[in-house]
Design brief:
The protein has 4 helices and 5 strands; from the N terminus they run αββαβαββα. Strands 2-1-3-4-5 form a 5-stranded mixed beta sheet. The model has no long low-confidence stretch (mean pLDDT about 95).
Length: about 130
């Protein structure tokens, strides 16, 4: 379990992790840090593919790392890019976050400040398990 980190710390770590992204086509390097409900952190980067539909987002690879380790509840995800700020998770990643109960999504805003958002704000009227009943 890691010690609690500030939103600024988590975005800085995500930006650092982004340096390891595989982005030969877009040259857009994204990193993500997932914080599980027990405080354990998992990281991921975007992994591009010449068949663009096979590309994996950083948020998805970080969530996949956490799930592979047995995590079923994620508290926070922070996203950062090498290239700058003002980038939010795509809709597919937002839906994936819903599956694991993400409460906070932390990004570096276009202004340079760090923004903390609820998933409800970023994905209103989301589809979840209750919709399958």
């Amino acid at each position: 379990m890691s010690e609690a980190k500030t939103p600024e710390d988590l975005v800085a770590r995500a930006r650092h992790v982004a340096q390891g992204a595989y982005a030969p086509y877009s040259n857009f390097h994204v990193g993500a840090v997932v914080v599980a409900d027990d405080g354990t952190e998992y990281v991921g980067v975007n992994v591009e593919n010449a068949a663009y539909g096979s590309t994996m987002c950083a948020e998805a690879t970080a969530i996949g790392a956490a799930v592979s380790a047995g995590v079923r509840r994620i508290e926070t995800i922070a996203v950062g890019t090498v290239e700058g700020s003002g980038h939010y998770p795509c809709g597919n990643c937002r839906q994936l976050m819903q599956e694991f109960g993400v409460e906070r999504v932390i990004v570096q805003e276009a202004s340079g400040s760090v923004g903390v958002h609820s998933l409800d704000d970023l994905l209103p009227h989301m589809f979840g398990p209750d919709d399958l009943l």
